[in-house]
Amino acid sequence: MRLLDASSIIYAWDNYPPEQFPKLWEWIALEITEEVLVIAQVALQEVRLKTPECGDWLNDHTIDSISPGNAILHLAIDIQQTLGVSGSHYHPKGVGENDIIIIATAKHCECELITNENIQNNLPQELIKYKIPAVCDLTNVDVQHLDFLQYLKQSRQVFG
């Protein structure tokens, strides 16, 4: 099972429009039906806000949306503490609350996270400034991640 971040599905929607890449979207729909692809509830809400048509498409294909239960929220608090986030004082250059919930969801479900958030080649000295990929790579977080294009390449699917 793989967990979609809002950034990855929006990237796919913007760069591979369903009208021009129908076979790709048929495959994504199948991945959703087979529950290979799931999404955190907070990520689905972000998609609906930023790209309503993509949110509608995900709803129409009944993507499994994972709610943040107690176990996920406890993991999120642990990640927050690791990063040094105090209350709701997130750094504008780092992850936000939804990002932490998404990472915690992937960790709880033992999913690989598909995110198109940029990898920071030079990590900031302050953990609070880490983006999703860097947080996933922390030893005590340890969530596997890849971007949408890597996901496509790993699938070895041919769309033609």
Describe the model.
The protein has one domain: Rossmann fold (3-Layer(aba) Sandwich), CATH 3.40.50. The protein is 51% helix and 9% strand. The chain is built from eight helices and five strands, in the order E-H-H-E-H-H-E-H-H-E-H-E-H. It has helices spanning 6-15, 22-33, 41-50, 52-60, 70-83, 97-109, 132-137, 148-155, and strands at 2-4, 37-40, 65-66, 112-114, 145-146. It has a five-stranded parallel β-sheet with strand order 3-2-1-4-5. Helix 7 links the parallel strand 4 (112-114) and strand 5 (145-146). Helix 1 (6-15) packs parallel to helix 3, helix 3 crosses helix 4 (52-60) and helix 5 packs across helix 6 (97-109). The two termini are 25 Å apart. The model has no long low-confidence stretch (mean pLDDT 96).
Secondary-structure class:
alpha/beta
**Number of strand elements:** 5
As a percent range, the share of strand residues is: 5-15%
CATH class: Alpha Beta
Enumerate how many helices there are, as a single number.
8
Average pLDDT works out at 96
User: How many structural units, i.e. domains?
Assistant: 1
